[in-house]
Amino acid sequence: MINTLYSTMKLSQFKFNLPKDLVAERPSKQRDEARLMVLDRKTQTIEHKLFKDLINYVDTDDVVVVNNTKVFPALLRGEKEKTGAQITVFLLRELNPETRLWDVVVDPARKIRIGNKLYFGDTNLVAEVIDNTTSRGRTIRFLYDGTHDEFIHLIKSMGLTPLPDELRALRDITAEDKERYQTIYAKVEGAVAAPTAGLHFSKELLKRMEIKDVKLAELTLHAGIGNFKPIEVEDLSKHRMDSEEMHIDETCCKLINDAKQNGHKICCVGTTSMKAIETAVTIPGKVSPYDGWSNKFIYPPYNFTIADMMVTNFHPSMSSMFIMVSAFAGPDFLMQAYQTAIKEKYKFHTYGDAMLIL
Questions:
Q1: Which domain holds residue 93?
Q2: Mean pLDDT, the chain cut into blocks of 10 residues (358 residues total)
Q3: Residue 180: predicted pLDDT
Q4: Phi–psi pair at 286, nearest 5 degrees
Q5: What is the pLDDT of residue 3?
Q6: CB-based contact 222:198 (threshold 8 Å)
């Protein structure tokens, strides 16, 4: 069990053993028919529902906060010059549109050195490795003579859905992933990882929320692969998250602030939405517009002043997502819930089932 002495919490206190067969290889047949575990923090009780039952836990004028980021087809398959060795390039962010410089992750990294040229498919697209940034990270320059718009169109036409390494190790990327590794309200392209809690929302569920006059507040946080990096320090106060670009406008802030002022509930969908809202808190219980970057790492103890409820997936052991959710649910209660989920054979990780924390 997790130690209740929050002030001394360490990474190892967030470790649990997950049977491999509980990692979801594919999404549920219908988005909103994934299982939903409901945790009530006041009564310390657990219920088992379906995701579409979320409608029963929100009322008129409550606000559901969602991340409308859209996943970029950021996975490229190519080969190394001369040897023809197969390589995977995971596009993280464009550093300079004029010079075609990109920050990427390569696999297998040991074969990719500064000065190497990488060739992609049957196109004339070539990239040169300019710098090493981390053990797997590289800066590459694409050698392309067309306009920037033509270049981006080419990249998108070649790119594959950037499923996490863990999932790609289990199976190949399919046409289904292009649709299902994207929320139905995705609008603003820029993420290389999906805000997975939002994958469970269906058009039907959103319509039912609209009929009930539940408000939808949209923000944008472009999730990166830093969420999947293992935490390498035992003392959580020393962990540093990768920065992610985020934007919260006046409309989103007004919906949230008005609801708080009038006593209505705020439900954050996913750790990305929660991170964004907490980054934008100016005074307790109020958020302000924000345009910039956030590397906020939330771990127990933490005083949440905006969200009353949270929707989330079942996350990996010792991950930053699991630790954030522990701060919201309470570490002991969340660990109890995870052990229940394992016993009841809930599905975990990217395409897994969901949890609602009240």
A1: 75-159
A2: 55 95 95 97 98 98 98 91 85 88 89 89 84 86 89 90 88 92 96 95 97 98 83 92 94 97 97 97 92 94 96 96 97 97 97 98
A3: 95
A4: -140, 140
A5: 38
A6: no
CATH code where residue 154 lies: 2.40.10.240
Residue 316 has a pLDDT of: 95
What single DSSP character describes residue 316?
A: P
| Chosen domain end from 132, 159, 186 | 159
What's 46's DSSP letter? E
Number of compact structural domains in the chain: 2
Could you give the C-alpha distances from 317 to 209, 273, 356, in angstroms and in order?
Answer: 33, 21, 19
The three-state secondary structure class of 54 is helix
**Cα(273)–Cα(5) distance, integer angstroms:** 27
Q: Is 192 part of a structural domain of the chain?
A: yes
Q: Is residue 35 part of a domain?
A: yes
- Cα–Cα distance, 9 to 239 (Å, whole number): 13
| Residue 31 contacts residue 200 (beta carbons within 8 Å) | yes
Q: Show contacts of 337-340: CB within 8 Å, 24+ apart.
A: 337/37, 337/39, 337/46, 338/16, 338/314, 339/16, 340/37, 340/46
What is the structure's pLDDT at 8?
A: 66
The pair phi, psi for residue 45, each rounded to 5°, is -115, 160
Q: How far, in Å, are 41, 70, 355 from residue 51 at the CA level?
A: 19, 22, 8
Residue 25: give its domain's CATH number. 3.40.1780.10
Do residue 320 and residue 206 come from a single domain? Answer: yes
